[in-house]
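Recall from the previous lesson that a structure prediction takes nothing but the amino acid sequence as input. Here we apply that procedure to DUF4386 family protein from Saccharopolyspora oryzae. The sequence below is the only information supplied.
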Amino acid sequence: MTIAGLAGAGGIGFVLLALAINAVYIRVGFPMPNSGRSPSEVADSLVALGGRLRKPSVVAPATWLFTTVFAAGLLAELWRGEPRADAWALVGFAGVLMQNATFAVVEALRFGMAAAAQNRDSIVGLWTLNNVLFGFNQVFLALALIGFSTAGVGVGFLPEWHAWLGYLSAALLFVSSSVSPYNADGTNRIAVTGLIGWLGWAAWIVVCSVLLLAGS
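The prediction returns the following tokens.
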């Protein structure tokens, strides 16, 4: 499949997942932004919601993956070597990346608010925010590994084995990122998965650095 095809599939996949996630949030009674509810009402809703917030949030990293692939494919299609048009295409691509990063914070904040509402203790909410946001961030490392590995092999800069190291590390990081909602309290039963993925990421960087130095 071409990059254009992957981008199209990613765009459709994002829309379908986003609709499904929001439908689940509404069904379980999650207080959506701009709903007009008072802070006390929001707190009561979050307490009643309990652990039901976790399941729809498991697929949140997939939406960011889909939007990034979509944006990259659209950028490739729009790139014509014309400075003005290319600059605007880059602005659009940057907007998608910034949206992904910002929404990762929003998604993590939901768990922080839920914890704060149940325990009436701000530090619990902030700690929960830290844990979930840290976990979700791994999906961006996975994207970097996939993108640079694919591009590096395509131009003959990276050897095949190195690219597969990137792909394997990306898969581990993505799995670890996807289960972040279940690690909100700091207990992570598959922490070794993310750790191995991060070590693979670090090794991947070292090899890339050596290749860059050798070619300089």
